[in-house]
Design goal:
six-stranded mixed β-sheet; 13 helices; Phosphorylase Kinase, domain 1; 4 domains; Agglutinin, subunit A; ATP-binding; single chain; EGF-like domain; five-stranded antiparallel β-sheet; alpha+beta
């Protein structure tokens, strides 16, 4: 037995002929120049018992290119097509990892003769490299870091968007903006629920069990429910979808017992394309022009009586029983109607009293009025975990109407938001104009903020045409957030802890004036109380360490503010697992740069005025953010002190502890942002809102 310089373990017989070699039996890893030929496949070696679908991942060489697939039906979510001399290549191929590239070759050619147009450029090798296919569906390039004596991920080869991975939200889960939700269908019937409420990435399950194709129920008791703007992860597979109009696509799935869902995408033509799947993995939201049809089942009614003889025998009995039964049924229905109406009236009166008792309550609107103001909720501005926001108009005033998801909010959270923001007024807090509590409908009406949320402007890898914000604008936004929080913490009769400060909850107007929004998780704290005890709530990446004890003060907002400031200054997210593993958490990078006096490296490279003429001021604000990030909440400044520093009335504390503690990795793996090693158990942090 011999191990070669390339890492191939070879077994020879007595004649020095090769009888076995490790390169013929790859597992999850591909070494440089190791061929991955047709018939071979890479599979992750980390078993995830809680998510069986993630254990059915395959990466293989195919005559049509490199394929990555998932599930028992091998649904393709990544592929690179093979061309040779401009034409599709039908011969056998193999894949090889070379310096600077991952290339696909015809099996009859030496590695120097790569097939035309089939080359994935990679970072040049500074030391030994290898490629690994991992249980989070990513294919990563690793390199030996001699300085830190460790392997580091240097490149994510697939380069797919978060929601393009097939198990990111589990079976039947919908990935929207990095969040996982279950399908919600119009009406009062709940067809799907979370498989594990503590781990949303494990997907959803059917409320009523899905029968097998051999069951009569599979033929008679199913129907299709439609989800607008929902697509599927593997529409990038040209062989999976077929041309079809929407109705034919729906009928094709309805008549096929093995079909679990149909996805139709309109390409502005008369037909579009249809994708039928027998195993529903993660779906994608916000896909305009796409419609998903999911096959669902409801529990059967009483079994049918098929015997005509039995029917004749019972005919006389039924005739005499009808009169008595009908009379009893009418009496029972009357009594039941009275009881239910009384309960409904009592509940309605309770709701009325709850809101009428709040002093300074904003205007209460009817559902029909807001439905008309939003043109039947036709102009969607955005969507989050608690519901959708629509563009509306009340008279001459443009408004934003938030329609809360009836399955994703509680009365308590709704009341908290109405009572909190409805009774306070500040230039840096979003103004609530009114609300609606009409039967099961819950809506909030806010002033319209034309600039949208802060996260659309500050991240360097953002999509769209938004230009990088200048330093003066960024500084003004930071000041406005600080003033809004200062008012909540110290300007009201009771301290108000927001508990969910993040860029998505900071809204901007045309002049980039910032206002704090979304008070669904806020808590009131009496002035005489040192803290409050509450369950964990908030967003991973912005949560202070003291959430582990559930004893919190308004200082949790100060910590979140510090995270947001660092994001604004650096132009990237705090948690970004598309980065190499040592850079996945922004505040860990901040700790390293602070300890080595290299804070300048943290400044957004897309903004020249921050790097040149305003560098000293930017670094001073960065130090203020680090003061807010102290693990000991007692060492963090109050928001009034933060405002004083921003206004130049005092200096930042010089004795800072750089041992920042990020709570997120200890309790959650962010959805859509895979980890680089075995992930810890996930946990639901936000309450339904």
């Amino acid at each position: 037995m011999n191990i070669t310089e390339s890492g191939n373990l070879v077994l020879f017989n007595q004649n020095n002929s090769i009888v076995w070699q490790s390169f013929d039996h790859p597992t999850d890893t591909l070494l440089p120049r190791q061929p991955l030929t047709e018939g071979m496949k890479l599979t992750p070696n980390i078993i995830n018992a809680s998510n069986p679908v993630s254990n059915q991942l395959y990466l293989a060489a195919h005559h049509a290119g490199l394929h990555a697939s998932a599930g028992s039906t091998h649904q393709i979510y990544y592929q690179s097509s093979v061309y040779y001399a401009g034409d599709a290549y039908n011969g056998s191929t193999y894949i090889a990892l070379l310096n600077r590239s991952l290339s696909i070759f015809p099996s009859s050619s030496p590695p120097s003769e790569s097939i035309e147009n089939v080359r994935i450029d990679l970072p040049p090798a500074r030391s030994f490299q290898y490629m690994r296919f991992e249980s989070d569906e990513h294919l990563r390039l690793y390199e030996w870091d001699q300085n830190n004596i460790r392997w580091s991920s240097v490149y994510d080869i697939f380069q797919l968007d978060y929601c393009d991975y097939p198990t990111i939200c589990g079976e039947y889960g919908i990935c929207r903006n990095g969040q996982c939700i279950c399908p919600v269908v119009a009406g009062d019937i709940l067809y799907f629920k979370q498989a594990d409420t503590r781990n949303l990435s494990l997907g959803c399950i059917s409320v009523d069990p899905i029968p097998s194709c051999q069951s009569a129920a599979a033929e008679e008791d199913h129907h299709l429910v439609a989800l607008s703007d929902v697509s599927y992860f593997n529409y990038n597979d040209p062989n999976a979808a077929i041309p079809s109009d929407e109705e034919s696509c729906r009928q094709a799935c309805s008549s096929n017992c093995s079909c679990k869902a149909a996805f139709h995408s309109s390409d502005n033509s008369s037909n579009g394309s249809c994708l039928l799947v027998s195993e529903v993995l993660s779906m994608k939201g916000y896909q305009s022009g796409s419609t998903a049809y999911l096959k669902v089942y409801t529990k059967q009614s009483l079994p049918r009586q098929n015997s005509s003889a039995s029917a004749k025998k019972r005919k006389g009995v039924v005739t005499y029983a009808v009169a008595g039964t009908t009379t009893a049924a009418v009496l029972f229905a009357s009594v039941l109607f009275v009881i239910i109406r009384g309960m409904c009236n009592q509940r309605k009166e309770g709701d009325e009293e709850e809101f009428c008792e709040v002093p300074g309550m904003p205007t209460r609107f009817t559902f029909d009025l807001l439905r008309g103001a939003t043109n039947e909720f036709s102009r969607k501005l955005g969507e989050g975990g608690s519901g959708s926001v629509y563009d509306g108009r009340l008279g001459d005033e443009r408004v934003a109407v938030k329609l809360l998801d009836r399955h994703a909010h509680r009365q308590k959270e709704f009341s908290a938001e109405v009572q909190t923001i409805g009774s306070i007024h500040h230039i840096n807090l979003v103004k609530m104009i009114g609300f609606c509590a009409d039967k099961t409908n819950r809506l909030l009406v806010y002033e319209y903020m034309s600039g949208g949320s802060l996260d659309k402007w500050i991240y360097s890898n953002r999509s769209g045409s938004n230009a990088p914000l200048g330093w003066c604008v960024r500084r003004r936004i930071i000041m406005h957030i600080a003033r809004g929080l200062y008012y909540l913490h110290e300007g009201c009769r009771q301290r108000i802890a927001h508990l969910d400060i993040k860029p998505q909850n900071i809204l901007l107007d045309d002049n980039f004036n910032a206002k704090v929004a979304d008070f669904g998780l806020s808590r009131l704290i009496d002035r005489e109380d040192s803290h409050v005890v509450t369950r964990m709530r908030g967003t991973p990446g912005y949560m202070a360490p003291e959430w582990l004890t559930s004893k919190i003060t308004e200082k949790v907002d100060v910590y979140s503010f510090g995270i947001v400031v660092i994001e604004i200054l650096s132009g990237r997210r705090n948690i970004d697992y598309s980065q190499p593993d040592e850079r996945g958490q922004l505040i860990m990078v901040l700790r390293e740069k602070a300890m080595n006096s290299q804070l300048e490296d943290m400044i957004d490279g897309n903004n020249q005025d921050m790097l040149s003429s305003n560098k000293d001021e930017v670094i001073e604000i960065m130090k203020l953010a680090m003061w807010c990030l102290q693990s000991d909440s007692n060492r963090r400044p109050s928001m009034s002190v933060v405002v004083q520093v921003m206004e130049g009335e005092r200096n930042v504390e010089s004795d800072l502890n750089y041992n920042f503690f990020d709570l997120s990795p200890a309790i959650v793996v962010p959805v859509g942002q895979p980890s680089f090693s075995a992930p810890p158990g996930a946990s639901v942090l936000s309450a339904p809102r």
